[in-house]
Design goal:
54% of the residues lie in helices and 2% in strands. By secondary structure, it is an all-alpha fold. Among the domains are: 38 residues, no CATH class; 31 residues. The chain has a two-stranded antiparallel sheet with strand order 1-2. Helix 1 runs antiparallel to helix 2, helix 2 packs antiparallel against helix 3 and helix 7 packs antiparallel against helix 8. The chain is globular and about 70 Å long. 35% of the residues are buried.
């Protein structure tokens, strides 16, 4: 147990998730928790380096437990299969947090195999655990840009949790929302924006219901999915709705920061950058969208409408005397002046370029340690923190 930590719980310095006293890893974001009293973490690169040795010690202890349960099971004691699966799951999380992705995948897959066997043997009580390992495995595959496999894992995780909710186990609604959010992130990165928006909206609906029924502890999750939905809408070209969605996320993050939850300040800055980037592209989008409307509205006197010649009505001929109004004092010796030709419509304007298909970069530095980071990075390679947590 980490020295200096009292009984009870404290908050993860990265995502704010409650962690039991003595916990070394956040169950939500997988961050290594430094040794020290709650609230003592400064978020510096030096702290992260100091904790690296403790992470390796933790992994070594899990390896020893894994071998112990494997020996017991090899002697025919299959009652220890659930224990082995849990050790493998914890080992996968520790390796993932330590950025040892290949070994983390192996541990998760071994855990998945055991839990599938338990479920197939009729032990449905392990279905939630199976969904959990599928979700974590999907997160690593996403991190490796193996999007097809990540999406498959997220879909199966979502299906299991949806079936649990439909069976009346509403306590799994938050987990279903988490699976939907992660699936939306993977679909959006894969370019399946329509599918991403659909699952994002369902996740948003679930989380708004959770906030209404169970309290404000779900507000950070709601703000997070709204930010993801805004990005998908922006990339789809629906800039106005994207900005409105971003602003709702900004309002929630702003309220949380104003209440003293400073861990959400990087999220607030990120969504504000998204609003700024989307707003700067709005005039160009509006100009493009306004052109078809101009072709359907008649121009003023002497004005030519801009647009397609197929939709433009033919120019009216110049005014000539009507039969009901006889000309005054006709003078046949003077020739009638030729009608004034209608002004020629200008050539069709070239269309404005469509909105960008990918969201603009929102900074190239880690908000925690200040080191340079790739714009699409999920983890900072310097301090190990998640820059865009997968919920």
């Amino acid at each position: 147990m980490a020295s200096g930590q009292g009984k009870g719980t404290f908050s993860c310095p990265n995502c704010g998730n409650p962690i039991r006293a003595g916990g070394r890893f956040c169950n939500k974001c997988g961050m290594n928790i430094p040794n020290g009293p709650a609230g003592s973490y400064s978020g510096t690169h030096a702290d992260q380096k100091t904790d690296t040795g403790k992470a390796h010690e933790h992994i070594a202890r899990l390896r020893a437990e894994e071998k112990k349960y494997q020996r017991l099971i090899s002697k025919g004691d299959e009652q220890y299969l659930p224990d082995l699966a849990q050790v493998l799951f914890d080992l996968g999380k520790a390796l993932h947090a330590n950025r040892d992705l290949t070994r983390a995948i192996n541990s998760y897959r071994n855990c998945e195999g055991i839990r599938r066997k338990l479920v197939n043997d009729g032990k449905d009580e392990f279905l939630p655990d199976l969904a959990k390992v599928l979700g974590n495995l999907g997160a690593i595959l996403y991190d490796q840009n193996n999007l097809d496999e990540a999406i498959n894992n997220y879909r199966e995780c979502e299906t299991i949790r949806r079936n649990l909710v439909h069976a009346g186990k509403v306590e799994f609604l938050p987990d279903l929302a988490k699976a939907l959010n992660n699936l939306g992130i993977a679909l959006a990165k894969h370019g399946e924006l329509d599918g991403a928006i659909t699952v994002y909206r369902e996740c948003e609906e679930i989380r708004k219901g959770l906030v209404a029924r169970e309290g404000e502890q779900y507000l950070p999750d709601l703000a997070y999915v709204l930010n993801g939905l805004g990005m998908a809408l922006y990339n789809q070209g629906n800039v106005k709705e994207a900005i409105a969605t971003y602003q709702e996320s900004e309002r929630i993050y702003g309220d949380l920061v104003n209440q003293g939850m400073v861990q959400y300040r990087p999220h607030l800055s990120r969504v504000q950058n998204h609003i700024s980037a989307a707003s700067s592209s709005l005039p160009k989008v509006e100009e493009t969208a306004a052109e078809p409307e101009q072709t359907q509205e008649g121009g003023g006197q002497g004005e030519a409408a801009v647009g397609s010649s197929e939709q433009q009505p033919p120019p009216e001929p110049a005014a000539v005397p009507t039969p009901s109004t006889p000309p005054a004092s006709p003078q046949p010796s003077e020739p009638t002046p030729p009608p004034t030709p209608a002004p020629t419509p200008p050539a069709e304007l070239p269309p404005s370029p469509p909105p960008a298909t990918t969201h603009p970069s929102v900074g190239g530095f880690c908000p925690y340690c200040g080191r340079k980071a790739k714009p699409d990075a999920i983890f900072c390679r310097a301090c190990g923190k998640q820059l865009e947590p997968l919920d």
